[in-house]
Amino acid sequence: MEEKMKVTMEKIVNLCKTRGLIFPGSDIYGGMGNTWDYGPVGVELKNNIKRAWWKRFVQEEVNVYGVDAAILMNPRVWDASGHTQNFSDPKMDCKSCKQRFRADNLIEEHSKGKESAEAMTTEQMEEYINLNKVKCPHCGNFNWTPIRQFKLMFETSRGTLEGEKDVVYLRPETAQGEYVNFLNVQRSMRAKVPFAIAQIGKAFRNEITPGNFIFRTIEFEQMELQNFCREEKSFELYEAFKEKAKKFLLDLNFNPEHLRFHDHEKLAHYAKAACDIQFYSPLGWEELNGIHHRSTWDLSRHQEYSGKSMLYTDPVTNEKFIPNVIEYSIGADRLTLALLTEAYDEETLENGEIRVVMHFHPAIAPFKVAVLPLQKNLSEKAKHVYSILSKEFMCDYDEAGSIGKRYRREDEIGTPFCVTIDFDTLEDDTVTIRDRDSMQQIRLPISEIVTYISERVKFN
Ligand code: GAP
């Protein structure tokens, strides 16, 4: 499906900056590559996305347990996970134009996605690039440096005395916080396999390739969940999770044609299956989340490196085994970007004007309702209505400018309902409620608006 999207990355970046969603990081200092700050509107959007995820994957499940593990972990964790040895990007510099590229991306772009460099060694990647005379996408020359591996983990140090500092890492994924708490959670919660551990938290990667707004950043949030299960049940669970992950996205109003499964053909040596869900973005088809069958690799490695037994004892059969892991991982920022591009629309109104509107699912909309007095001298009544609504919902309040312009502003940040206070409100305690998508207006008593809105902003 190669439809032309109305939305471009440029339009999204502009809207995010002008409407308080997302600003360049350290903006007044000229920014810092691949960092972004969420503004007053954006922080609400991202929090709502994280809340919807937690509700669906943790709250509504009986056997999923949430944790919030430390970002800084014992460095042995990263030896066990393989990150200290293997977590790097293969980079090549073009000697003619001095641009730097990822060798695996060059191969995938050159082969139009037919070759996957994921399981290739450095030598195999160099061989492919040389045999196929892959040219620099920037200047068109074939003049490469050899491939060099750039470490992706950020290092910092701890210790008080100079010279006695130990290296520690900012975690590059949240998953390890879930594996290292397998025993703690299983015992304290008396959890029976199959069960899962989930968390939402920051991860850090020293990404030096272009980030494309919040698609790829050096600091980002992940929403990850590790299912611990018996081997016999593992493929069933893997398939079920692919569907569950997709359903979550569809329930957030994704166009089904903008999502697809991408099953990996070449797998890491320990993996038994792997799949991404890709979304159709202004950049083309891109990875949004991953579902991976990781066998017993993670728990076995932590058993080996920590010396602690990761054996689980079945309470009925007394059988002892190390559970298999089905991992589900999605970036909160990348999902925010995907939902921004999905929600964006430009509608031509009857009078020929273009209305920019974000059709967010109401549950993730930054503000559920905006309170708008028709004129400034109605502000006392409007503030009274705001005080009722703001106890239940995140609300916006705006009394500046024409009502038409205020509606447009709310449409651009995806506010599903606007409540307008007019002179009749002073007489009969009723207000107008305008629906973002249909632009239809109805009149309701103030006493009914909380119920009216509550019923329409749930995420089920
Ligand atoms: N524990 C598995 C893991 O971390 P991953 O494919 O490297 O797997 C999972 O990351 C998800 O995290 C990706 O699908 C993406 O949504 C998000 N992600 C990864 N790197 C990112 C980055 N640099 N910036 C923003 N999101 C990122």
Structural classification: alpha+beta
CATH architecture of the largest domain: 2-Layer Sandwich
Instruction: Say how many strands there are.
Output: 23
Distance between the termini: 29 Å
Give the distinct bound molecules: glycyl-adenosine-5'-phosphate
Verbal overview:
Strand 7 and strand 8 (166-169) form a beta hairpin. The protein is an alpha+beta fold. It is globular and about 75 Å long. The mean pLDDT is 95. The chain folds into 3 domains: 2-87 and 152-340, BirA Bifunctional Protein, domain 2, CATH 3.30.930.10; 90-142, no CATH class; 367-454, 3-Layer(aba) Sandwich (Rossmann fold), CATH 3.40.50.800. The two termini are 29 Å apart. The strands form 7 sheets. Strands 3-9-10-16-13-12-11 form a 7-stranded mixed beta sheet, sandwiched between helices. It has helices at residues 9-18, 40-59, 76-81, 83-86, 103-110, 122-131, 175-179, 182-188, 231-251, 297-306, 332-343, 379-389, 403-412, 423-428, 446-454, and strands at 22-24, 36-38, 64-66, 88-93, 100-102, 148-151, 155-158, 166-169, 195-204, 219-229, 259-263, 273-281, 284-293, 312-313, 320-321, 324-331, 344-348, 354-358, 369-373, 395-397, 417-421, 430-435, 441-445. Helix 2 (40-59) crosses helix 11 (332-343) and helix 5 packs across helix 6 (122-131). The chain binds glycyl-adenosine-5'-phosphate. Residues 173, 175, 205, 207, 216-217, 220, 222, 224, 287-290, 329-331, 333-334 line the site of glycyl-adenosine-5'-phosphate. Glycyl-adenosine-5'-phosphate binds at residues 173, 175, 205, 207, 216-217, 220, 222, 224, 287-290, 329-331, 333-334.
